[in-house]
Amino acid sequence: MKNINDIINILNETAQNPKKAVDVIIENGEKVCGIMPAFVPEEIAYAAGYIPVGIWGSDGEIKNAQSVMPPFCCSIMMSVIENQLKGIYDVCDFIVVSSLCDTLKCMGQKYKGKSPIIQISHPHNRSIENAVDFAAEEYSILREKIENIRGSKITDRDIFNAIEVYNENRKALRRFGEISYKYSDIITPVIRRNVFKSGYFMDRKNHTELINSLCDLLEEREAVSDKKGVVLTGIIADDRKILDMLYRNDFYVAADDIVNESGFANCHAPDEKDPIIFLAKMWTGGKSTLFAYDPFKKRAEHIIDEVKRTGAAGVVFCYMPFCDVDAFDEPIIVKRLKEENIPFIKIDFGMQDTNYSRAETKIEAFSEMLEL
Hints:
Elements: H1 4-16, H2 18-27, E1 31-36, H3 42-47, E2 50-54, H4 75-85, E3 95-98, H5 102-105, H6 107-110, E4 117-120, H7 131-150, H8 156-179, H9 189-197, H10 204-219, E5 228-234, H11 240-248, E6 251-258, H12 262-265, H13 275-284, H14 298-310, E7 314-319, H15 324-339, E8 344-348, H16 357-371
Parallel strand pairs: 1-2, 1-3, 3-4, 5-6, 5-7, 7-8
Helix pairs in contact: 1-9, 1-10, 7-13, 8-10, 14-15
């Protein structure tokens, strides 16, 4: 059995060098497809024999993307287009795009890479009677288009097998999320991020084995939480410099409401005889997310519950600049946090940031405030 450091090193290397990780997958004879960015039924692509890899953009200077995208586009999509113009995603046999926001809805027109784009829509109102039927129809079209690219049918049994692989992975990640805050001496904010992120660049079956082994080894240790816990909320918290700032100022991540971290792990659905209906209900029956209509705003209550469960000292809004869907929820969440007397700060997690002085000042002040 690998030790904790061995496992963490593998996860860190995969998360911090995704291109290298994907190249290894291809060198091993596997085919890859791109997933942009969230709540795509990856199981259908996995069932077809592809390794789905996450397309969430990357850090770096934007030089050419603004010739394609408007300047008020969010950092994720801006960096995706920048990478596309460099040909980084051309290794994918196809790319699936979920139309969860206004920017994503136009990606089928804006994206000009070599890989064909398959665009799907989700029912934003998940509570209405025909939401499952709508999602199932979209997923059936996706299945048919992948079959056309693959050149053969995808059986129901193949999809059920893929669902089992993904359910086991989500279960392992939920387990990690529930215990990781107890071991803040080992699980730094960056390492915690890498545990989730690495799954987007390897076979989920292999990822599950690593996460379960890591959890087993952690649970053999004595719990150590000698810093202040915070709950992160937002779409993505993938800026290593900011995560390092949190740790330097005696913060650890107690839990998260981040779309590409626990947002992936918390998806689950009841058993169904039809695998497409199963996947559709995974969306319609999922936990509250900023990408779906929620008249009751359960996202705020989920964040508060996580603060109370972990004993966190506060909440950090990981805001993606120019992201309307995230900004719409903020006033409601802020109102509830104030009612519960839960401290919070808002930090911009833009992928093209070069000056971190404002973020560092905010984090330092927040740490000092909590010590008063």
